[in-house]
Amino acid sequence: MNSHSLLNGKIGGQPELKDHSERLLDFICGQTSAIYREAQGCLKHPFLVPGGLFHDELWDWDSFWIAEGMGPLKDRLDPDSRKKFLVHATGSWINFFEHQAEDGTLPIMMKAGMGDFFGCTTREGTEKNQAKPVFAQFAQRIAEMAGDFRWVEPYYGRLKQFHNRWRSKYGTECGLLVWGSDAAIGADNDPTTYGRPEFSSANLLLNCLFSRELHAMAKIAEALGRESDVRKLEEEIAGIRDAVQAECWDNIDGFFYTVDVQCRDHRHEHFPHINRGMEMTWKTVPLKIKMFTGFLPLWCSIATPDQARTLVERHLRNPGEFDSPHGIRSLSKGERMYDPATDSANPSNWLGPIWIVANYMVYQGLLRYGFHEDASALADKIVALLGGDLERHGVLHECYHPDTGKPNFNTGFLSWNVLVGAMIARESAAAPSSRKTLTAQEMA
Q1: How far is CA 200 from CA 262, 389, 427, in A?
Q2: Which segments of 161-254 are extended strands (E)?
């Protein structure tokens, strides 16, 4: 398939965006070899790296997002290129599971000379997290691209172990998961987790990722004939939905917030001989900081239609909060932590910059709830942002300033920015008259 066959919709109707789209698609499909690494050291299978500064590192969700972005572009790849991509994507996935601990823990990042960079599986040091819950989603994308789910069968039990580790170590009484620490959580310095006590932050990114993960696991279970697992997973998905609704939605602000689960009644310790009186009835308190994660209940179909409308009309379209000339800010402009200009590697800066992965999740959420014009406008901004970057610099970067579009960090990054290709494919495949809100099944 050539680039023009993907550019016959809204984006294709605007000359400048069409040019950007053609260059981006050609660049992405022509640069995949730059992120391939062959088996080396403790990594026994070929794998994917994010490029730029991370040229030799195999990361958990970077690998998944690359597969997510390349899936819709598979027909642009010739058979040999598609096969090579699948070999490296599958090898990435298997490398993680070959380093899985007995309790189900998976490492977050691996290198040829270090199978668990953060010490997730060794229990050494202070690390308290494990790999992000993306591996059923990753496996599903590989299987769909290959047209075969059977490759997952030998690892199905290990995948269940990984999910069980999330439940057993990071589950809470309120039904939400918490990060163990603020290390390598993806949105590194999200103020609702960064610098906060360990095992306290029921972050919306984590819980929405896990909801999507269970949807993907149900797809895999169904494909492999595990019907009893499908029913259990559907019940758990409903449980997460109910927990996010009960604990994270703020009806006054019209926003979903990450919550702190450190709510304990300590009166029996401090005043053991005094009548307790009124009981403590709440399990969490909201961390009222507006991060892009507040839109993720759209991405995983948790929000009600009324909540979705409020989120979009009051917050997403608000230039004083998330709307910017170049996409959706990672942190609301109105927050006192807002600092989009700082170029930082450790932690990476999520205090306002445009991150393509965040914008992609918001984009998908908008489509799911029927906000097609908002989704298209967002896709146009991302295409213009990355297309302009590619035109000026010949490469892409990891994040961008929301007001100027200036690259913030990591020249040569090629990971979740390939998701722009998925946006182009989606926008170009459907003329406005044929667009529709996705069903619950399609949302998975």
Answers
A1: 6, 38, 39
A2: 201-202, 249-250
Cα–Cα distance between 266 and 64 in angstroms, integer? 43
**Nearest CA to 309 among 437, 218, 403?**
437
Residue 11 pLDDT class (50, 70, 90 cuts):
low
pLDDT tens digits for 403-431? Answer: 999 999 899 999 999 999 999 999 988 75
In the block, which residue shows the tokens 């006590």?
Answer: 197
Measured CA to CA, the distance from residue 329 to residue 323 in angstroms comes to 7
pLDDT tens digit string along 339-352? 999 988 889 999 99
CA 292 to chain centre: 11
Query: What token pair was written down for 60?
Result: 């958990």
CB 204 within 8 A of CB 293: yes
Q: SS3 of 102, please?
A: coil
Distances 28 to 89, 319, 386 between C-alpha atoms, Å: 15, 31, 11
Q: How many CA atoms lie within 13 A of 303 on its CB side?
A: 30
Rounded distance between C-alpha atoms, residue 67 and residue 85, angstroms = 9
- Nearest to 104, CA basis, from 168, 162, 154: 162
CB neighbour list of residue 93: distance below 8 Å, 6 or more residues apart: 63, 135, 138, 139, 142
- For tokens 């006192």, name the residue: 336
Identify the residue whose tokens are 């189900």.
104
Residue spans per domain, the chain? 3-443
- Per residue in 30-55, pLDDT (tens digit) is 999 899 999 999 999 999 999 888 88
Strands 327-328 and 249-250: unpaired
Question: Is-contact 129 169, C-beta < 8 A?
Answer: no
pLDDT (tens digit, 9 = 90+) per residue, 329-380? 999 999 999 999 998 888 999 999 999 999 999 999 999 999 999 999 999 9
pLDDT reported for residue 443: 43
SS3 139: helix
Per the DSSP assignment, residues forming a β-bridge with 36 are 48
Q: Report, at the CATH architecture level, how domain 3-443 is classified.
A: Alpha/alpha barrel (1.50)
